Amino acid sequence: MASWTRPQTGFTLVEAMISVAVLLVLAVGSVAANRLTSSGVTINQLRSQANTLSVEAMEALLSMRAENFLGLSMGVFHPVFGESGWNLVSGQETVGSFTRSITLNPVQRNLVCFVAVCDITVQGGIDDPGSLNADVKVSWLQGGQDKEIHLTSLITYWR
User: Fold this and answer.
1) Mean pLDDT, rounded, of the chain
2) Torsion angle, CA of 80/82/88/91, rounded to 10 degrees?
3) Is the dihedral of CA 38, 43, 48, 53 positive or negative?
């Protein structure tokens, strides 16, 4: 004797709905991961460009130091490349979405020391005419937040 069972048509509908839900979850997760990766790439690109601009400014400053240290003065500048090489122009500059500046400040050394080169001090020393504190700053706006990179160096008259 053959027995016949009634097919369960509702069960196939449930399977189809679960399959669609799983695919939807995978699609949403994939889109979210893609957005996260894309924003991470953009953040890294901006930081890399800012780093390149800051290194370029510091290298330009070192080039000018090698040519004419005594021609450097205190203040806020930005580098400009011309026919005669690098020059410092007063103020900061805007390069694309970045703002770049080089700040040169005096270096003070201890009044009393028993070595060839006295230690650097923040206050109460004497200005060292053969040294400058250099701070290269590159800033930009990223995702509504201010970001910046600083490179600092002690620039000395080494000739």
Assistant:
1) 86
2) -40
3) positive
pTM higher than 0.85, yes or no? no
Give dist(CA 16, CA 151) in Å, integer.
Answer: 59
What pairs with residue 140 in β-bridges?
98, 147
Give the span between the Cα atoms of 107 and 89, in whole angstroms: 21
Q: Which residue has the tokens 């953009």?
A: 42
State the CB neighbour count (10 A cutoff) for residue 95.
15
CA distance 17 to 121: 73
Distance CA 141, CA 156 (A): 33
111 token code pair: 């009044």
Q: Please write the tens of the pLDDT for every residue from 93-148.
A: 999 999 999 999 999 998 888 887 788 888 888 888 999 999 999 999 988 899 99
Q: Which of 95, 97, 71, 100 is nearest to 84 (CA)?
A: 71
From the list 87, 84, 94, the residue with the least C-alpha distance to 71 is 87
Structure confidence at residue 38 (pLDDT): 63
Q: For residue 92, how many C-alpha atoms fall within 13 Å in the half-sphere facing its CB?
A: 15
